Amino acid sequence: MAELEGPEAGLTVLDGLELDHYRYFHSARAELLRRAGRDDEAGDAYRRALDLAQTDAERRSLQNQLARLRPPNDRETGTPIPNRGSGTESVPATRTATPCG
């Protein structure tokens, strides 16, 4: 739904469900809120998903998503934030000299 009609349409569907106990509900909701530019609410949803997370890997992933949200002062001023990185950026290779001979 959200991919075709946008995050607000997806949120309308999710918000009609009674899944407060289900951890993936909150992480999905957080992602849609983030896409809709509603970072404060997305942060709350990510924190709720963190409360329900069952593995360290889930916690790390959710903490990373939470850290990528734009800080409140950047949202208020509209100041663009630098790319925080996804961990997939390419790093230029360094050459080392090797002796010839």
Explain the overall architecture.
By secondary structure, the protein is an all-alpha fold. The protein has a domain at 2-71: Serine Threonine Protein Phosphatase 5, Tetratricopeptide repeat (Alpha Horseshoe). It has 6 helices and no strands. The chain has helices at residues 2-5, 7-15, 23-35, 39-52, 56-67, 72-77. It starts with a helix and ends in a 24-residue tail after the last helix. Residues 79-98 have low confidence and may be disordered.
Task: Briefly summarize what is shown.
The protein is mostly helical and 101 residues long.
Order of helices and strands: HHHHHH
Radius of gyration: 19 Å
- The total count of helices amounts to 6
Strand percentage lies at: under 5%
Specify the biggest β-sheet: none
Shape summary: globular
Task: Round the mean pLDDT to the nearest integer and report it.
Answer: 77
CATH class of the domain at 2-71: Mainly Alpha
What is the count of β-strands? 0
The multimeric state of the shown protein is single chain
Which CATH architecture of the domain at 2-71 is right? Alpha Horseshoe
What percentage of residues falls in helices of 4 or more residues? 55-70%
Instruction: List the uncertain runs.
Output: 79-98
Question: Looking at CATH, which topology of the domain at 2-71 would you report?
Answer: Serine Threonine Protein Phosphatase 5, Tetratricopeptide repeat
N-to-C span: 65 Å
Alpha-beta content class: mainly alpha
